């Protein structure tokens, strides 16, 4: 049995018959109700075979049967090609779940109609700030689907929705009639400045940027499929441990008095200083010497170090 947990979501993989999975599900429901007071039912703890696809954290994990062609050199120097059979673990991003998330954020009309809506929450923000905020969302989604086989497809869809949503917003804000006119002026990644056609007396954007009165406009990420990174198939190192689990283990070890005392002795032995002790020394120096004398003493020490 394998156990995977991410926040409040957990997945248990069982190598065995379905009866084992049913028994473990019963134990989980009883444990959660007895220990945490949480009442779960069978619909919340689903059982699914991996060949049909398991939904977990907006991804679908399944096992596919592949038939690769194996080539080898037989006796006599003849090259023989033969069909083989094997299984491959497939992790794909759920496009339907991605559309549902966009609907909750009011980027699209509905689950079955993924037509982008104008990004009204950014109505009163500048073009540079709006593009920057949407790029952060795109980068987060690209990292979230880092290990999905269809990463390019789903991230490309996310970029299309966000870019179209911004184009509709800019069309309404700058009194342009369509997204096509917005793209014609601001380019495909919306990196060129837009302004109202009625305000001809306004200074040029390049002049305002030169004197530092406006921010540089960042183009919307992943405007072309070639700019979207592919799936990361690099294997994890041996005995790999996630960062959050490593921190949790270190915290548990610090609760051990023996380990904490040994760590404290090693810090003193190596001539290091603990952060609380350093803060206490700084506060004491400020109280006794004053801010000016403290800065002068720091400058003298810096000169001595440079001279040595």
TrEMBL record:
What does the entry list under GO cellular component?
cytoplasm
InterPro entries the record matches: Domain_X, GrpII_Intron_Splice-Mob/Def
Show where the Domain X domain sits: 115-184
According to its UniProt entry, one GO biological process term is:
mRNA processing
- Source species, domain of life: Eukaryota
What PANTHER family does the record point to? NUCLEAR INTRON MATURASE 1, MITOCHONDRIAL, NUCLEAR INTRON MATURASE 1, MITOCHONDRIAL-RELATED
What is this protein's name? Domain X domain-containing protein
Question: Which organism's genome codes for this protein?
Answer: Malus domestica (Apple)
């Amino acid at each position: 049995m394998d156990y995977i947990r991410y926040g409040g979501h957990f997945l248990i993989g069982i190598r065995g018959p379905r009866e084992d999975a049913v028994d473990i599900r019963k134990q989980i429901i009883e444990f959660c109700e007895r220990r945490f007071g949480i009442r779960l039912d069978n619909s919340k703890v689903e059982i699914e075979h991996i060949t049909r696809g398991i939904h977990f954290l907006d991804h679908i994990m399944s096992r596919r049967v592949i038939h690769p062609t194996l080539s080898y050199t037989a006796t006599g120097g003849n090259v023989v090609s033969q069909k083989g059979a094997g299984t491959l673990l497939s992790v794909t991003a759920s496009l339907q779940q991605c559309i549902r998330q966009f609907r909750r954020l009011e980027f699209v009309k509905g689950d079955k109609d993924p037509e982008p809506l104008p990004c009204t929450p950014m109505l009163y923000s500048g073009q540079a700030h709006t593009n920057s905020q949407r790029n952060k969302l795109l980068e987060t989604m690209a990292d979230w689907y880092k290990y999905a086989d269809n990463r390019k497809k789903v991230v490309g869809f996310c970029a299309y929705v966000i870019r179209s949503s911004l184009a509709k917003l800019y069309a309404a804000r700058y009194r342009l009639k369509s997204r096509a006119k917005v793209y014609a002026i601001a380019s495909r990644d919306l990196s060129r400045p837009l302004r109202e056609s009625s305000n001809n007396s306004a200074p040029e954007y390049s002049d305002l940027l030169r004197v530092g009165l406006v921010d540089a406009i960042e183009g919307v990420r992943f405007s072309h499929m070639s700019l979207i990174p592919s799936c990361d198939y690099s294997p994890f190192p041996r005995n790999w441990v996630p960062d959050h689990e490593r921190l949790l283990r270190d915290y548990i070890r610090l609760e051990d008095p023996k380990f904490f005392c040994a760590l404290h002795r090693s810090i003193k032995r190596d001539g290091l200083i603990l952060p609380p002790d350093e803060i206490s020394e700084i506060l004491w120096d400020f109280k006794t010497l004053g801010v000016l004398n403290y800065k002068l003493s720091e400058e003298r020490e810096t000169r001595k170090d440079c001279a040595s």
